[in-house]
Amino acid sequence: MVDFKDALIDLLGAEQVIDGDAALTNYAYDWWPVAAKWRNQGKTPLKPDMVARPQTTADVARIVTLANEHHMALTPWGAGSSVTGAPMPLNGGLTLDLSDLNHTLNINETNLTVTAETGKMGYILEAELNELGYTLNHSPQSLDRSTVGGWLSTRATGQFSSKWGGIEELLVGFEVVLADGSVVCYETGPRMAVGPDLRHVFVGAEGTMGVITKVTLQIFRMSEHRIFETVTFDKLEDGLAVMKEIMQRGLRPFLVRFYNPTEARHAMQDKSFEKCVMFLGFEGMPSLAEAEYQVAKSIWEAYPTDILGPAAVEAWMDRRFDFSTVENILRNPGGLAETIEVGHYWDGIEETYHRLEEALSPYADEVLGHFSHVYPQGTSLYIILLGQCADDAEAEANLLKVWETAMTICLQTGAAISHHHGVGVARKDFVRGALASGMTVLERVKGAMDPENILSPGKLGLDA
């Protein structure tokens, strides 16, 4: 370890290497609620031995080469905003803080692409594009606290994905440093049919296959017109049927969120609200947005509904990046809050919802649920738990039980154990069950790409 540290300082300079205990503690926690309970208790079970802050891709390549030579575990870090423990090292070693790789390199207004370094904060990149009349149309709730690289690492998606897709659909190409320090550039243009699409070896890999340093993404002209609507339903199954029909009819609202009555009270900011509620948004040229709205309206009018207008959705749009409810609960001694997102086909999502709600309710005072990120084939589901335990130790233990219970139910019902938050530490023990025979392929790819197993060892359920 000492030899590696000395070599790292020779490589980068002492100012770019962090090894003080207090400073390292900043890299021992992300936004996973279990980690919040660790922080409250002063526990650091997943703390790096040192941190390097590269300034360029060349720096990253030299660091990775050195780590490979010394058999040193290396875990990439963007903004530390994962909610699953993804950037926390399982085996100590070196954390690679990419936050100084934060430049926008090119905005191509002819091809509608943007190229940026992967330490770029999402909200800053979006603001730069907005000034020119463009947008990424990628709007995760963590937009103001996550990096472009983090989106790729976790295979993220955003609140407008029902129209614009997840990060994998916005991706054009990237530059990645492999485990031996070699640098590979991979770009497909609008489309390419030259062998397998190797970009997807790295997207969602959570740093296990390489360190992405630059990325090119699609951008879009900002929409001319938006229409919002709020629709209430007496029955959960009616709202799900409307969502399914909207998508299977070929409509593509940019916003579709359907809340159970418990979360509807939060979404409507009305403690007396008792129905399910759906938030919808349509955008584009005015005539097209209006046409989509009218067809969608004809679908929900076939069910008992009330139309409440745009105000509730517009209010939600203004506060949609607000994490304060969950954050405040987690700061409190014994506070318990968790958000678990999964996905399923239409014929399995309702059973998964009811089983999760029933099984997790003993751990929380409130079980919130909503469906969003909608497809012709199915939808994602969020289960959000809010509660209070005797102390942080009990909250930590209960959160771990929540994860085990939820993941077991998903494996039983055939649901995807993650829709877009990724695996991290929270789900690592359930990946083998989720991928089944596909785990063999993942293991063989990892073995070929990283034979020394230095890149994020133990993540994705792989060997530590």
Structure description:
The chain is α+β, with helices and mostly antiparallel strands and 464 residues long. The protein has five domains: 2-99, Uridine Diphospho-n-acetylenolpyruvylglucosamine Reductase, domain 2 (2-Layer Sandwich); 104-221, Uridine Diphospho-n-acetylenolpyruvylglucosamine Reductase, domain 3; 225-319, Alpha-Beta Plaits; 324-422, GMP Synthetase, Chain A, domain 3; 427-464, Vanillyl-alcohol Oxidase, Chain A, domain 4 (Orthogonal Bundle). 36% of the residues lie in helices and 22% in strands. It has 17 helices and 18 strands. The strands form four sheets. It has a seven-stranded antiparallel beta sheet with strand order 15-12-14-13-17-18-16, with helices on both faces. Strands 5-6-10-8-9 form a five-stranded antiparallel beta sheet. It has a four-stranded mixed beta sheet with strand order 1-2-4-3. Helix 14 runs antiparallel to helix 15 (392-413). The longest helix has 22 residues, at 392-413.
Key structural traits:
about 475 residues, alpha+beta, Uridine Diphospho-n-acetylenolpyruvylglucosamine Reductase, domain 2, Uridine Diphospho-n-acetylenolpyruvylglucosamine Reductase, domain 3, Alpha-Beta Plaits, 5 domains, seven-stranded antiparallel beta sheet, five-stranded antiparallel beta sheet, 17 helices, about 20% strand
